[in-house]
């Protein structure tokens, strides 16, 4: 059994994602009732990549969150530290660097890129899994060009108490069971639920962005706050 705990030890997190890589995208569609596709589209719109720009999609996993940027004419570096997730992405796309997406193995806490490399940086459903969120936000700032932007797409909290309670019941009860039936790895999805419940709410994450040096920080909720998009500029 491989699952991470809330201390998010990097080797546990990477091994957990290695273990669910083959069914990762299918499970997402099932447990979100297909909403994940709409959330990804909203993130792409928020990044607003232009032709010729270089975008970092950090914690890109299988590259599902990366592909949409190519349609905008941007080049994307899909970076992750789970070799299992990267391998699944590379096999699916037919190469490590095809059609504008290049997969790179790297750790969010020590990014393998020079200062001021990217026009835009983004991270979808990844920041919650890193062991040191503030260090990851600083690293993202370091590799972004002056004036460049950051978009974070992450599970968040519903600001209406009783709806949030109902959602928590789904998170802690049905979600791991459904995901377990599809993936055969329910323990990994216990971690998903626990990590969402323990994640900072929207204002607190915004403060963390500001603390890391990001400017003009703002957020907006998707699906009533189940997911939030945070944005900042360098
Ligand atoms: C839930 S998946 C998200 C994948 C993709 N962004 C998506 O939207 O489908 C989280 C990813 O974060 C990656 N991750 C977690 N901590 C990381 C770190 N310190 N450095 C790089 N990747 C990390 C995991 O390996 C995993 O692939």
From TrEMBL:
Protein name (database record): Demethylmenaquinone methyltransferase
Keywords from the named record: Menaquinone biosynthesis, Methyltransferase, S-adenosyl-L-methionine, Transferase
Entry binding sites for S-adenosyl-L-methionine: 62, 80, 107-108, 124
Pathway of action: Quinol/quinone metabolism; menaquinone biosynthesis; menaquinol from 1,4-dihydroxy-2-naphthoate: step 2/2
SUPFAM superfamilies for the chain: S-adenosyl-L-methionine-dependent methyltransferases
Reaction equation(s) it catalyzes: a 2-demethylmenaquinol + S-adenosyl-L-methionine = a menaquinol + S-adenosyl-L-homocysteine + H(+)
Family: Belongs to the class I-like SAM-binding methyltransferase superfamily. MenG/UbiE family.
InterPro entries per UniProt: SAM-dependent_MTases_sf, UbiE/COQ5_MeTrFase
Keyword Transmembrane: no
PROSITE patterns, A to Z: SAM_MT_UBIE
UniProt source species: Nocardiopsis algeriensis
């Amino acid at each position: 059994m491989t699952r991470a705990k809330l201390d998010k030890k990097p080797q546990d997190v990477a091994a957990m994602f290695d273990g669910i890589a083959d069914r990762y995208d299918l499970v997402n569609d099932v447990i979100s009732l297909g909403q994940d596709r709409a959330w990804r589209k909203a993130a792409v719109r928020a990044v607003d990549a232009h032709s010729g720009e270089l975008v970092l999609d950090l914690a890109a996993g299988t590259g599902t969150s990366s592909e949409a940027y190519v349609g905008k004419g941007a080049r994307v570096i899909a970076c992750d530290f789970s070799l299992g997730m990267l391998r699944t992405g590379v096999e699916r796309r037919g190469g490590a660097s095809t059609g504008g997406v290049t997969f790179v193995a790297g750790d969010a806490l020590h990014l393998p890129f020079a200062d001021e490399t990217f026009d835009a940086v983004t991270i979808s459903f990844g920041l919650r899994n890193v062991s040191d969120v503030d260090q990851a936000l600083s690293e993202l700032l370091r590799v972004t060009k002056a004036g460049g932007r950051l978009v974070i797409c992450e599970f968040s909290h519903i600001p209406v108490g009783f709806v949030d309670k109902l959602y928590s019941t789904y998170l802690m009860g049905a979600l791991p069971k459904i995901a377990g039936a599809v993936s055969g790895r329910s323990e990994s999805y216990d971690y998903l639920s626990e990590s969402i419940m323990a994640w900072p709410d929207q204002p607190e994450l915004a403060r963390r962005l500001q603390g890391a040096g990001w400017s003009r920080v703002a957020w907006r909720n998707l699906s009533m706050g189940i997911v939030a998009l945070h944005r900042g500029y360098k």
